[in-house]
From TrEMBL:
GO terms for cellular component: cytoplasm. SMART domains: CysPc (SM00230). GO terms for molecular function: calcium-dependent cysteine-type endopeptidase activity. Keywords: Hydrolase, Protease, Thiol protease. Belongs to the peptidase C2 family. The lineage of its organism: Eukaryota, Metazoa, Spiralia, Gnathifera, Rotifera. Residues 1-161 form the Calpain catalytic domain. One of its GO terms (biological process) is proteolysis. It comes from Rotaria magnacalcarata. The keyword NAD does not apply. The active site is at 77, 101. This is Calpain catalytic domain-containing protein.
Length: 268
């Protein structure tokens, strides 16, 4: 342990530890057939205030870690995704994504649609305002979704509610219900088994009120109330010397139901 360990790490681990949300991870360098559908999935996830981060994989020996590429992107560095919107530019409808370098300085994307790109000058003031565009060395920038797929390797999403999962992504999924013994409304989550993604599920799941990415985000949380009471709801664990006079069944319990038979599902 120690504060030194806070210097770096995987963003998704911090997201799930802080929110008890559901983790979803995509490898962008592998084929995602319906990119337009995937973009709409990101828009919807942002409206539900899901947390997102992306990064560029360094070389296996780490020799280029935090190296600044000619296009301004930093290898092995995590960027947060702050918005995704469509933009009508001349006769083309562009899928645009906004990223932020947490260093919050002038080290930004230098490719198409960077802060000082002349393309922005061809847009009217209302469109610039809708895109929340500003020419500032604040680490935040826009790029096309096409360039995003080319430049980045990993996309990580933390769903603060399992309900924001989209089965329409045509991934191989199975549905699980989680309910508490206190009759709280059960929630549904998709466990992604496709080789391109991985997932971790935590309970209880935190929920967020729907809001646009640039609006103030209001956090709320669904809790299952309970307490550990000696000889009543704190049975402890089974130990070798107890000869199975166990009381672990008195521990707080949650019932997990699956909608389809699946021998690979294991719970502990």
């Amino acid at each position: 342990g120690g504060y030194r360990n806070l210097i770096g790490g995987a963003p998704i681990e911090a997201f799930t530890d802080l929110t008890a949300g559901v983790e979803q991870r995509f490898k962008l360098n592998e084929s995602i057939k319906e990119r337009s559908q995937f973009f709409n999935f990101l828009i919807d996830s942002l409206k539900h205030s899901c947390l997102m981060a992306c990064s560029i994989n360094p070389k296996s020996d780490g020799s280029d870690f935090e190296e600044i590429k000619p296009n301004g992107l930093v290898v092995g560095h995590s960027y947060s995704i702050t918005a995704a919107r469509y933009l009508q530019f001349k006769n083309e409808l562009l899928s645009m994504i906004r990223l932020r370098n947490p260093w919050a300085n002038e080290i930004e994307w230098a490719g198409a649609w960077h802060d000082r790109d002349n393309r922005w000058n061809s847009l009217d003031l209302n469109e610039k305002k809708r895109m929340s565009w500003q020419d500032a060395d604040d680490g935040e920038f826009w790029m096309t979704f096409q360039d995003f797929f080319v430049e980045f390797d990993i996309l990580e999403i933390c769903h603060l509610s399992p309900d924001t999962f989209k089965e329409e992504l045509h991934l191989n999924t199975s549905i699980h219900k989680i309910s508490s013994p206190t009759n709280h409304e059960s929630q549904t989550t998709s466990v992604i088994k496709d080789h391109r993604t991985s997932i971790r599920m935590s309970v209880p799941a935190c929920l967020l009120a729907d809001c646009l990415p640039d609006q103030r985000r209001i956090w709320s949380c669904l809790l299952f109330e309970g307490e550990w009471v000696r000889n009543f709801s704190s049975g402890g664990r089974c130990i070798t010397a107890c000869e199975h006079g166990c009381h672990f069944w008195k521990n707080p319990q949650y019932e997990i139901e699956t909608s389809a038979e699946n021998e690979t599902v294991k719970c502990a």
